[in-house]
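Reopening closed ticket. The problem is back. First fold of the pair:
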Amino acid sequence: MPLVKICGLTRPDDAAHAERSGAAYLGAILAGGPRLLSLAQARQVLGPRRRGVQRVAVFGDQPAAEVIVTARALDLDVVQLHGTRTAAEAAHIGTASGCVVWPVVRVAGTTLPVEAAALGAVHRTLVLDAHVVGQLGGTGVALDWAGLVASVRDLRTAVPDLTVILAGGLRPENVGEAMTLLSPAVLDVSSGVESAPGVKDPAQVQLFVQAARDAAEKSR
């Protein structure tokens, strides 16, 4: 089944519950918005490096040097990069920080941005998120999954070993449809399991993970 990332965490208890519920990735936002954390807060929420879960921080257009320093300070597993970075700059951040890089492409409509193929070819991983003007994620806006089937298929043909991570508007009640249409390797959810921005609903987190498991079982 796809792995689950619970993103936009702001409270240590929520992170601990997400991990117990089966999330493979815990995400903290360092790129603005209502879920923005300071370095100290992110360290407290994500905790130390450990087996069984990967810790992810989401960055925007901060200078590469700042991203690298922050990633090292938090001893991150993954840096998720929104913004307008080139594939080469993102690769440099990964090498210098010692982290896996997840570049994000923001999708409007049914066509992937032109940079998707280049980023995917370099990093073999791509986060697909909805394009919402002035926001970098956590909007609750879903992609047109059915409309993107052909574009994602073509991208996978061009980059055969591509890991597709799906974000944007995922909820317990629609995650099965998203999995059926696009077959992502990772499901990245934030607002879809919240009672308020940055406040995760434990029941919704459990429902989301279970819904992903159920959909995976049905597809076998």
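Second fold of the pair, where the issue appears:
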Amino acid sequence: MNRRKFLSLAALATQLPGPLCAEDPPPTADEVLRLVRLSYALQNYKLTGQLRDDDSGATQPFELTMAERVIRFRFSNPNEIINLDLATSPPTLSRVVAGGRQEVPLSMLGAPVRGMAVSYEDLALRFLDWPNGQMLGDDKVATVRCWKVRVTSPDGAGAYGTVDVWVHQESGGMAQMEAYDRGGKKIKKFQVRKIQKAGDATVLKEMRIETFDPASGKTVARTYMSMDKPEKN
């Protein structure tokens, strides 16, 4: 995808005037991440899925809805709803539990969700909103051409100091991420393993989420997020 096509898609999504020059440089890191975030914000689907721990085989079913710029994960036993409101800047992450609704505090961002290798920070994909990204160039994930972008935490909240993101050049979707602590040690990796079509949109079918021991570099937990066929809201 060249810059002209890329910015045309972004302009369509935001209803802004499209680019006029056919010979533009590649998109910037911030433009790439902005389009990834927009691709989530503009979707309008309902899906069912599950988190599965690779070691124990334990599963956590959930329902995912994306509508009106809100992404909602609904779990049961015990009941918990995790809301990500993309209409605010930065997006607002909140939980609804038995005691009522509350924003997820910064101190809780790194906490595991339902005992899995996925945190509240992971569900929110906070790193997509970090400013001043650095474009590291082209790369491939499973033979798919991607842009590789590096972002650094602007606020020191959560577990991640730096995150590298691979974005599929053709679809604008996230293909992979690797997160590092503030000492530069890798502690988390997402990799999209399967995708599926929902109308003209491409949505997740399966993603592998791994947690690493920063000292040894060994995998200490692995969770799979799988999604069923989406339904239009």
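Update: turned out to be a display glitch only; the data is intact. The chain has three helices and 14 strands. The helical segments are 3-14, 29-41, 120-124. Please close again.
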